[in-house]
Amino acid sequence: MEIFHLALITTTLLCSLVAGFLFAFAVVVMPGISSLSDQDFIRAFRAMDRVIQKNQPIFMLVWIGSLIMIVISTILGISELSRVQQALLVIATSLYLLSVQLPTVAINIPLNNKLQSLSVEKMDADALRVARDEFEARWKYWNAIRTVFAFITSLMLIILLLLQ
């Protein structure tokens, strides 16, 4: 099996795992904690986010690995693929970088960090409600965007694999 094909398989697996992670947050985690009180919602989200922020090794391998591997696959694919397949891979990579990774770094992580910086124990009910309102809807919106484009990226990568 050639290097490009192995890279594409690895990329597809890692990007699909990221899509599944985002999907799980969209359809299970966030709806599950949405029924909690403002204080409990913030505490629950912060607890989950701390696992990620402490560079949980398997999560980091998948998340950063997907980013590295999609770039490597694209570079390798330029010399290995037909023009149509090259276009499909470049579009998939662009969507992944601009619609999954960029919003993560520019929007979701800063929202997470803002939530982490709160002194929940010192906040009254109104302050907790405001903090949650400033966080929850925007975070869910951008996670939905990331989820859709991660799914589209995975689908495009699967199609590329099937064309090999």
UniProtKB/TrEMBL annotation:
Sorted alphabetically, which keywords does the UniProt record give?
Membrane, Transmembrane, Transmembrane helix
Name the InterPro entries on file.
Anthrone_oxy (IPR013901)
State whether keyword Protein biosynthesis applies. no
**Which superkingdom is the protein from?**
Bacteria
Q: Membrane-crossing residues?
A: 6-37, 58-78, 84-109, 144-163
Q: What is the name of this protein?
A: DUF1772 domain-containing protein
- Output the lineage of the source organism: Bacteria, Pseudomonadati, Planctomycetota, Planctomycetia, Planctomycetales
